[in-house]
Design brief:
The complex is a heterodimer. By secondary structure, chain A is mainly alpha-helical. Chain A is built from 24 helices and no strands. Classes of the chains: A mainly alpha, B mainly alpha.
């Protein structure tokens, strides 16, 4: 059996998994979703989803990961091969390579924006901007989408990207204990301390503008937390909560499984997985929920805050927050602090995206870490340019949709189904408790029966009403409710081919990537078979 | 902020902070044999 890397300590893997899960979504997406979907009442479907969907998915991923690690497999093709003992198992596992790879292609670029903005805050580059439209212009010019007095080339954004990419590669190159574990042990405590510091600063602002007495901290918290129970009768609120839980815990990426595969056979996973999930919730509900929306409310008022939250994560993060933080005394310092925290959260997430592929190259091809990291680094660096220079054409959005929205959900569903069918809830429960430092109450074992149906129902809804309309949207086809009757498939195909060829090329490229990964899986197993070492 | 708002906020924070506190207490007070001593760390760079 191949000698694999191991974690240096249990707290190391907990912080690494928590670091993988904590990202922009915790600080920006959650508060936006909560204030749009019933405020405090949103927490009812949110906690139900955490219990029925989030926690069981984490347990399943940790269990599958540690199981695969015993067979020297740390990526999904190998893990599925070990679990199913079927020829097709490893090929289905291609999802666990495709998803993290595609997300990594664009994620480092997003991460680099946080680095760029933290520097801009420190040097006061946007400190004079108070108008959201001008701030949008600042962001567009930084991204190279327009030219204006702030930026006339993509040079600075590109420089930030290269720097971010190099930082990621150094961490990955150094390995599991000396790289990932080391950086997470530093970054995650900084994230907690920094997040708490910012939270306390926002919550002690009182009434920043004495002429607007209604815009005070208590009302700001009320805007976020006052429950609107009528919202609970709307299915979209329940779906939003389930979606938030699904995306915040980083399940379906393969990263948790890879991290867990480096555990020993009798290392605890029950307590570690629950601790990591709990930490993610601490970042999201306690810290994330107390920074962006309350700050925006204090300086922009309720109407503008709600409008911004509806525009999405990037508007909230890169347009509203710089303006809001500018209005706080020592805003430059707080701006730097805010974006640097987002950058750190990004780093701990992006390094986890590389690990499944590194593990695949090490475990299945027998490459060493340095060779794997270099090869992967070169490929990712080249492909990331498509996101950088094709941002305006929607290439990054395409990568995000196919990798970070659609494939990730399918991957999670496949993981759950393979776990339920080939390991089974009873044995799965036993595996979860092997070497466990806590005994989870027996009643929770029934979650393994509920989760597949819960996830399946969400997946079906998303497929019909989010994914299909999104896929055809770039081609000028509006598929809102009732689209099935309006558009026969033949019409859609024709329109897609007529418009927006760049999107078609991107989609073709992603298909080619899947084909290449499948070929690699085929080759790896053939090589091992030839050497007589196939599992 | 209404009374219900306070209740929802404090309950949500309380649940999460309690979960984290219990988990970290267990992690930090766990039995010694489950913690890998420095000599047991196997970083294993093969090159």
């Amino acid at each position: 059996m191949q000698n694999r890397e191991k974690w240096g300590s249990r707290i190391g893997i907990i912080l690494a998994v928590a670091g993988s899960a904590v990202g922009l979504g915790n600080f920006l997406r959650f508060p936006g979703q909560a204030c749009q979907n019933g405020g405090g009442a949103f927490m009812i479907p949110y906690f139900i989803s955490f219990l029925l969907l989030g926690i069981p998915l984490c347990w399943i991923e940790w269990t599958l990961g540690r199981y695969g690690g015993q067979f020297s497999h740390g990526s999904l093709p190998g893990i599925f091969d070990s679990v199913t003992k079927k020829k097709w198992g490893k090929y289905v596992g291609v999802l666990g390579l495709f998803v993290p790879l595609v997300i990594f292609f664009y994620y480092t670029y997003l991460e680099s924006w946080c680095l760029g903005y933290s520097i801009f805050s420190l040097v006061g580059k946007y400190s004079h901007i108070s108008d959201p439209k001008e701030m949008s212009g600042f962001l567009s010019a930084f991204q190279g989408l327009t030219k204006n007095s702030h930026f006339n080339t993509l040079g600075i954004a590109y420089g930030c990207f290269v720097l971010t990419f190099v930082v990621n590669m150094i961490v990955i190159y150094k390995g599991l204990a000396k790289g990932i574990e080391f950086i997470c042990k530093i970054a995650v405590p900084i994230l907690i301390a920094g997040g708490l510091f910012l939270m306390i600063r926002i919550l002690t602002l009182g009434t920043p503008d004495p002429s607007k007495v209604d815009l005070n901290v208590t009302n700001a918290l009320g805007f976020m937390w006052n429950p609107d129970f009528a919202a609970l009768s709307q299915p979209k609120v329940w779906l939003a909560a389930a979606g938030q839980i699904f995306f915040t815990l980083s399940v379906g990426l393969g990263a948790i499984m890879t991290y867990a595969s480096y555990l020993r056979k009798n290392d605890d996973i029950a307590l570690s997985s629950t601790t990591a999930a709990g930490m993610n919730e601490l970042f999201e509900v306690v810290i994330g929920g107390s920074i962006v929306i309350p700050a925006a409310y204090l300086f922009l008022g309720p109407e503008l805050t709600l409008a911004t939250a509806q525009k999405g994560v990037f508007d909230l993060g890169f347009v509203t927050m710089p303006i809001v933080l500018n209005k706080i005394p020592f805003g430059d310092i707080f701006g730097f602090y805010w974006f640097f925290l987002l950058f750190l959260a990004g780093i701990t997430s992006s390094i986890s995206l590389m690990q499944p592929i590194i593990s695949f190259l090490e475990d299945e091809f027998g490459w060493n870490r340095h060779k794997s990291a270099l090869a992967l680094g070169i490929v990712c660096f080249v492909v990331a340019h498509a996101c950088i220079f094709g941002l305006g054409a929607g290439v990054l959005d395409e990568f995000d949709f196919w990798g970070g929205t659609l494939a990730i959900t399918i991957c999670a569903f496949v993981e759950v189904m393979i776990f339920i069918i080939y390991i089974g809830p009873k044995r799965g429960w036993e595996l979860l408790h092997r070497g466990a430092d806590i005994k989870i109450p027996d009643i929770f074992r029934y979650l393994f029966y509920i989760t597949p149906f819960y996830l399946g129902a969400i997946l079906l809804y998303w497929a019909l009403f989010n994914w299909v309309p999104w896929i055809v949207k770039p081609f000028g086809i509006d598929m809102s409710i009732g689209w099935i009757n309006k558009y026969p498939w033949i019409n859609i195909t024709q329109k897609v081919c007529e418009k927006n060829p760049l999107i078609l090329y991107t989609r073709g490229g992603l298909l080619l990537l899947i084909a290449l990964l499948l070929a690699m899986i085929f080759t790896a197993w053939k090589l091992k078979k030839n050497k007589g070492g196939a599992k | 902020m209404t009374a219900l708002g306070w209740i929802f906020m404090i309950t949500s924070w309380g649940l999460i902070i309690s979960l984290c506190a219990v988990c970290f207490y267990k992690v930090l007070t766990t039995r010694k044999e489950n913690i890998h001593a420095p000599l047991d760390i196997d970083t294993d760079q093969t090159d």
